[in-house]
Amino acid sequence: MENKAKRILIIKPSSLGDIVHALPAARLIVRHMPDVVIDWVVTPAFAELVDYCPNLGRKIIFHRREMGKVKSFLPVFWRFLHDLRQEKYDAVLDLQGLLRSAIFTFLSRSSVTYGPAQSREFGMSLGYNRHIAIPPDTTHAIERNLTFVAKAFGWDDRTLDFLPLPKKEDAAQSARSLLNLCGAKENDKLFGIIPGANWASKCWPAEFFAEYIQTMASLRPAWKFVFFGTAKELPSIVEIIQKSGLPVERSLSLAGKTGVAELAEALRLMCGVCGGDTGAIHLAAAVGTPTISLYGPTRPELTGVLAPNNLTLQPKLNCTGCLKRVCPLPENLCFTGIDPVTTAQKSVELCEKVSRR
User: Fold this and answer.
1) SS3 content of the chain, % helix, strand, coil (to 5)
2) Residue 302 CB: number of other CB atoms within 10 A?
3) Is the pTM of this model over 0.85?
4) Is 315:274 a contact under the CB 8 Å cutoff?
5) Closest by CA position to 14, among listed 68, 62, 75
6) Which of 11, 86, 94, 209 has its C-alpha lying 20 to 30 A from 353's C-alpha?
7) DSSP string, 7-27
């Protein structure tokens, strides 16, 4: 396709990390087609994140929960279909690559619809009239999205620019207000901790983070530590704080208090962030914050943090990268394969190296 598309639809409804991984592809599109307008199909939970997409036009909200209920399915579906067909798209790009997103692509009625050549679910290929084959050696999600877009439009350029997501002033002010209410002062050095994840096998135990924070706190006595997560993760955060012995005035929690945009802008205010393979750690890297990412059951070559100021740590085990949500072993060896003291020392070194630039 020539670089004359005026309006493009991206289908990537969720999740947090997946959308972060898709944003560089949107930037690639705008880099080659500066006047293009990009619409995006997204679930309500992550709609704020799509605001970071350049040249954003409309957000088409996919109400997944309501559409999954018998009573609300029809009215919600018809409203979604109406929104999906409100514009005539020059191209529709299915970056999700599931049967559901393939159906959405088909329902858009665009004459040019792109999807993956290899179907992950039966019947997917029927949703597209153009199929994109990704080379087997292109493994990382970000690189796959860039390749998908480049091949769709016939570009050789597949460059990841590493530019931080642009600052959202309203969300930044709200994030600063939330931090101030928690006890953070304007000039405080803040370090973020993300202990939770959607897999049990990706949640490093309280003992790890407690010793990690103890070491960090002793190395940098002026730093304060900000905990991020959902409201359901508050008990584990409290346990970490108690086991670390961190004073109340140095332990701040934004768990359950932020929307996605506020989360992004709060992470931007950190001098560094440490956590497992979860959406928030990818978001922290996307806004330009130094990150220390802990990997065990998942594979950095597939979904690792791609950022110049990132340190990825993963134990060397035969079972590393097993992709199991729950470790089948009596003791999760990934959790003991990374030393919290050494990790803390490397974290301080990374943060101070970046701050000196």
Assistant:
1) 45, 15, 40
2) 13
3) yes
4) no
5) 62
6) 209
7) EEEEE----HHHHHHHHHHHH
